[in-house]
TrEMBL record:
Pfam families: AMP-binding
Span of domain AMP-dependent synthetase/ligase: 2-343
Name this polypeptide is given: AMP-binding protein
Organism field: Streptomyces monticola
Length: 482
């Protein structure tokens, strides 16, 4: 297995033997600069096989890997540098300027990697630092309820457990080729590097691949597993409708980040005969919480799966009491995948990570709502900000978005709850007229759930992770609400 393909990008491929040797060389490079256990190494680099080697190299010497999206601007970089206090900062020619403005000295990847290549060519070996289970492996910065990005603390024990449990639950195989379009600055991309290593299969890091060649690259690399979010799934469907070539050999799509509309699931199955479309639910704060067993991907419509092996999902009422099966409450996760909190953010940590009142076990209060059926399958109802009342009825933006996505010609949809300046609104990516969209929604939704406002966009604004950029949509709406 050492000479089996491990990681591929647009410029080439490394075997497991090469990946290990490059990571050892980088660990030696770090040690030579005084970086050791617990030191934060902050990187703003594209996701390619070099970054994978840097990740494993940092782990070898006990350092904390802090990857940032290359698109992140100085405003948030300044906040993250102040929060993480890195011992060493690495950038490339595209990011070094703005990193230098906020972080001081920056090691350029080109020069750094030339030195790593020399160590690699010399066959240098690294004696790994002893790592404790509670040592921090990585900090993953997320946005959410706070104005500044917050870093989820990811210790080795939780990261290892979650990676192994996910690999088992999804059934990764040694002959798989995982085609990953997501950056390692997002846990969805980072964990794929770990999971493929556990399964000893190959990962294709395709974050920089052009959209139009997506299917061709999937065919060329023999992709069998493709992680998706709704926007990427819609793109794959759109490209598949135009192409006449045989589809890539994908056996499984895995979805997270947002609910995948049934119409998109159906289209993926149509264009990729026999494929499994696996629904999941999770948050970076516990990596993944539930996974639909792949062999049950067409069962229990609406379910997002069972808890990972060795973990638990609770549905609690506002007083913290469990609710009966089928009733909606807050989704709370417990188990060895729950992270210990946010870096240097004790107040936010105390709100989200709370001890079990009986056992003291740490539990993640997700702020999301859902229900469990009698067999323990989770049904996701919406995030706290998705749930609202209108005209006396409680509803979720998710059901409005799902209805919009059911309309032929709608490629993407996002609903915004009523606010001080506007009523319930829906944005769609389509060539349809707003009146036509609203007419179709009236045929699919109860009157109280039909939006008062519809905006049609030629292209949706997306976050760095491919999710709908709701803040940008809200600004568009507030700037033109009527």
């Amino acid at each position: 297995m050492p000479d089996a393909p491990a990681v591929r990008d647009g410029t080439g491929v490394w075997t497991y033997r090469q990946l290990a040797a490059y990571s050892e060389a980088f660990a030696l490079w770090l040690r030579g600069r005084g970086v050791g256990r617990g030191d934060r190494v902050l990187l703003q680099l594209p996701t390619d096989r070099t970054l994978a080697a840097l990740f494993y190299g940092a782990a070898r010497c006990g350092a904390v890997f802090v990857p940032l999206n290359p698109a992140m601007k100085a405003y948030h970089l300044r906040q993250i540098v102040a929060n993480s206090e890195p011992a060493l900062v690495i950038g490339d020619w595209a990011s070094a300027g703005r990193l230098g403005e906020v972080a001081g000295p920056v090691h350029l990847l080109d020069g750094l990697w030339a030195e790593v290549e020399e160590l690699y060519a010399q066959g240098a070996r690294f004696e790994p630092e002893p790592v404790r289970a509670d040592d921090v492996a990585t900090l993953i910065y997320t946005s959410g309820s706070t104005a500044a990005p917050k870093a989820v603390i990811c210790p080795h024990a939780q990261v290892t457990f979650a990676s192994r449990a996910l690999t088992q639950a999804l059934g990764y195989r040694a002959d798989d080729v995982v085609f990953c379009r997501f950056p390692m600055s997002w846990d969805y991309g980072l964990y794929k590097v770990l999971m493929t290593c556990i399964a000893r299969c190959e990962i294709v890091l395709a974050d920089g691949e052009a959209d139009l060649v997506l299917l061709r690259r999937m065919r060329e690399t023999g992709a069998t597993v493709v992680p998706i979010v709704p926007s990427l799934a819609s793109m794959i469907v759109s490209l598949s409708r135009r192409e006449k070539d045989a589809p890539p050999p994908v056996r499984m799509f895995t979805n997270t980040g947002a609910a995948l509309p049934q119409s998109v699931i159906d289209a993926l199955r149509e264009h990729f005969p026999g494929v499994r479309v696996v629904r999941q639910y999770g948050q970076t704060e516990a990596k993944r919480i539930t996974v639909m067993p792949p062999q049950e991907d067409q069962e229990r419509p609406g379910a997002v799966g069972l808890p990972l092996p060795g973990t638990r999902v609770l549905i609690l009422d506002p007083d913290g009491n469990p609710v009966p099966a089928g009733e909606v409450g807050e989704i709370v996760a417990a188990g060895p995948h729950v992270m210990p909190g946010y870096w240097n953010s004790p107040e936010v940590t105390a709100k989200t990570f709370r001890p079990d009142p009986d056992t003291g076990e740490p539990r993640l209060h997700t702020g999301d709502y859902g229900s469990l059926d009698a067999d323990g399958y989770l049904y996701f109802e919406g995030r706290r900000d998705d749930m609202f009342k209108r005209k006396g009825f409680r509803m979720s933006t998710l059901e409005i978005e799902a209805a919009a996505m059911d309309i032929p010609g709608v490629r993407a949809a996002a609903a915004l709850p009523p606010g001080e300046r506007h009523d319930l609104a829906v944005f769609v990516e389509s060539e349809l007229a707003p009146a036509a969209v609203l007419k179709e929604l009236k045929e699919r939704l109860e009157p109280a759930k039909v939006p008062a406002i519809c905006r049609v966009l030629a292209e949706f604004p997306l976050t760095q992770h491919g999710k709908n950029a709701r803040k940008e949509l809200a600004l568009l709406l507030d700037g033109g609400a009527k």
